[in-house]
UniProtKB/TrEMBL annotation:
Signal peptide: none annotated. It comes from Sporothrix bragantina. The keyword Zinc does not apply. It catalyses: L-isoleucine + 2-oxoglutarate = (S)-3-methyl-2-oxopentanoate + L-glutamate; L-valine + 2-oxoglutarate = 3-methyl-2-oxobutanoate + L-glutamate; L-leucine + 2-oxoglutarate = 4-methyl-2-oxopentanoate + L-glutamate. It holds the Pfam family Aminotran_4. It comes from the Eukaryota. PANTHER family: BRANCHED-CHAIN-AMINO-ACID AMINOTRANSFERASE, SUBGROUP IIII AMINOTRANSFERASE. This is Branched-chain-amino-acid aminotransferase. Its EC number is 2.6.1.42. Its cofactor is pyridoxal 5'-phosphate. Keywords: Amino-acid biosynthesis, Aminotransferase, Branched-chain amino acid biosynthesis, Pyridoxal phosphate, Transferase. InterPro entries: Aminotrans_IV, Aminotrans_IV_CS, Aminotransferase-like, B_amino_transII, BCAT-like_C, BCAT-like_N, BCAT_family.
Length: 418
């Protein structure tokens, strides 16, 4: 039975975000069933057209060389897909990488109607190209897009387009003879392009996918040093959009990060509320391993998703799942709120085991110190490379990424012959 008008209204009053995503997905399902010829088109990866570059560029010798300059180096091609509220999604185009053309009044430039994803493609030990759980990124992109009134799409189609771009550019830009542990970084992005001022949901948008080099960031010698966020700044708040990968989350955080770096730290540990809840480290999720005061049980603790303060990281989610499977009986995995004060207490009582940040860019990066209001909270590091559990998490996941372990999370990209 359809929900009554009041039930519907109440739900919307309480959970607008959840409702909005459900509505959009229902709309897509309805479109699929309708036979009307002038209905808006769905995103359809099978309509992809190919226009290859006439001026292919040289491939840098290494990630380090590629990242030495001031501009991100992208591969030869990108995929773009235009959307219009009347006609829906146009046919996706694979075309030469290059500048976009936007009117100065485009929605994204004024109202931050932008969201993005970040994932890597890896050249495995068996010579195959793999993505790591791209379905999670595609679904998260839908959540982010809907949060800022950008159009919905079937996540599977985005996943197919990501694979299509890598099928074309992977063989040249991540060749079979690259050093082990090499990767490219993929950046699916959506922007509101409607050239009309006025605070409203854009009726035109552009989804595009680029692939580029990203510096290796997981090897800070001696571990990362974090500085807690200043008292007068929050990254995300309950009812906000911390759970969405929208550009609007990042610009306002740059100042605190710059300040922390000038003081000799690597990232900001974002706290929330007067209680000082620990949320995220820079644009990575944050994990601590502590011994319970009551039972001595070793716990792997990370902030929860249910209050929608933090980003649902694919790396975070994978570590939580694998640790529950593979460390059952040894480590208790707990998703809960915890405060910086709790960490200070655990330090004073000798119960801190280790800490690490986790995300696609930094992968699993051990943390050796958190600085909070003039005081240091040091975290043990079993070796210069990290503690036992960060090293375990790193090896589990990298084994899947690089094809050392056959696992459904590692998705092989079929490569086009050059
Ligand atoms: C992207 C991001 C992460 C990490 O997510 P992954 O899917 O693991 O890369 C964590 N926190 C924030 C704020 C992010 O933007």
């Amino acid at each position: 039975m359809a929900p009554s008008a009041t039930e519907h209204k109440n739900k919307q009053d309480v959970d607008l975000t959840g409702q909005a995503i459900e509505h959009k997905l229902a709309e897509i399902a309805q479109l699929k069933q309708s036979n009307s010829s002038d209905k808006p088109q769905e995103l359809d990866a099978s309509k992809l057209t190919y226009e290859y570059t006439k001026s292919p560029r040289p491939v840098p010798a290494s990630i380090e060389e590629a990242c030495a300059g001031p501009e991100t180096i992208c591969t030869d091609h990108m995929i773009t897909i235009a959307w219009d509220a009347e006609t829906g999604w146009a046919a996706p185009e694979l075309r030469p990488y290059g500048p976009l053309s936007l009117m100065p009044t485009a929605s994204v430039l004024h109202y931050a109607t932008e969201c993005f994803e970040g994932l890597k493609v890896y050249r495995g030990v068996d010579g195959q190209l793999r993505l790591f759980r791209p379905d999670c990124n595609a679904r998260r992109m839908l959540t982010s897009a809907v949060r800022i009134s950008l159009p919905a799409f079937e996540p599977k189609e985005l996943e197919k387009l990501i694979i299509a771009l890598m099928s074309v550019d992977g063989p040249k830009w991540l060749p079979r003879d690259v050093p082990p542990d090499s990767y490219l970084y993929l950046r699916p992005t959506m922007i509101g392009t409607q050239a009309q001022l006025g605070v409203q949901a854009p009726r035109q948008a552009l989804l595009y996918i680029t692939a580029c080099y990203l510096p290796r960031m997981n090897s800070v010698a001696g571990g990362m040093r974090l500085h807690t966020s200043p008292e007068d700044m929050v990254r995300a708040w309950v009812g906000g959009f911390g759970y969405a990968k929208v550009g609007a989350n990042y610009g306002p955080s740059l100042q605190a990060t710059l300040e922390a770096k000038q003081r000799g730290f690597h990232q900001v540990l974002w706290l929330y509320g007067p209680e000082g809840y620990c949320t995220e480290a820079g644009a990575s999720n944050f994990f601590v391993v502590i011994k319970s005061r009551e039972t001595g049980q070793v716990q792997l603790v990370t902030a929860p998703l249910d209050d929608r303060l933090i980003l649902d990281g694919v790396t975070r989610r994978s570590i939580v799942q694998l640790a529950r499977e593979r460390l059952a009986g040894e480590v208790e995995v707990v998703e809960r709120r915890y405060t910086i004060g709790e960490l200070q207490e655990a330090h004073a009582e000798g119960r801190l085991v280790e800490a690490f940040a986790a995300g696609t860019a930094y992968f699993v990066a051990p943390v050796s110190l958190v600085h909070h209001r003039g005081q240091d909270i040091p975290f043990p590091m079993a070796s210069a490379d990290g503690g036992k559990y960060s090293l375990l998490a790193k090896s589990w996941i990298s084994n899947i990424m690089y094809g050392r372990e056959d696992h459904p999370w590692g998705v092989v990209v079929p490569e086009k012959a050059e």
